[in-house]
Amino acid sequence: MIFLGACGARIYKGIVFKQNVTGYLKRAADANTIDLAQTELQRAIQYLEANQLTTGYTSILYRTPDEDIDFWYRNLKASEEELTTLQSTSALEKTNVLMKLRETLLDTGEKTRVTVPEGLAVYPNNGLWAILMTLALLGGVGAFINWAYQYEKAKK
User: Fold this and answer.
1) For residue 113, what are the β-bridge partners?
2) 107 or 73, which is more confident?
3) What is the C-alpha separation between 21 and 29, in angstroms, rounded?
4) For residues 3 and 139, is the Cβ–Cβ distance under 8 A?
């Protein structure tokens, strides 16, 4: 039960984060107008600020650049500022800024995904979540082994 509860809670945190951040960032990247992109980007930024997800690292043991929340957040704010200053510019310049925004917000590779520091959905409790998920996994494996043992014992 602990295993299922921990996994369920982690999945829930990921869904809430997608609803309030990555979903809006994806929509901002897909936006066809400056106003639409700005609105979607501001929604994500407001959630980040309200939940104090603007500084720190999501890593537990060591820090790597891809886990730097401060850089990522400042990059979002810079994109928002750039969108704000584009009200009376040419259509070509607006298109270029929208393309730049898309490149900033999305990582393209085998699969296109929103650029977000890994583990931000459970930040600042990443260490606690790592321990909880490890214990839950070990408990789940232990429960399965116990069930298999009891099953074989009952067959004899």
Assistant:
1) 107
2) 73
3) 12
4) yes
Reference 103, options 81, 75, 68; nearest CA is 75
List CB contacts of 102: < 8 A, sequence separation 6 or more: 29, 30
- Which distant-in-sequence residues (6+ apart) come within 8 Å of 154 by Cβ? none
Residues in the chain: 156
**Sequence-distant (≥ 6) Cβ neighbours of residue 140 within 8 angstroms:** 3
131-143 tens-digit pLDDT: 888 888 888 888 8
Query: pLDDT tens-digit profile of 21-42?
Result: 999 999 999 999 999 999 999 9
Largest CA distance in the chain: 81
Question: DSSP character for 117?
Answer: -
End-to-end CA distance of the chain: 28
Give pLDDT tens digits for 46-103: 999 999 999 999 888 888 888 999 999 999 999 999 998 877 778 888 899 999 999 9
Q: Which helix (H) or strand (E) holds 75?
A: helix 69-84
The distance from CA 137 to its chain's CA centroid, rounded to whole angstroms, is 22
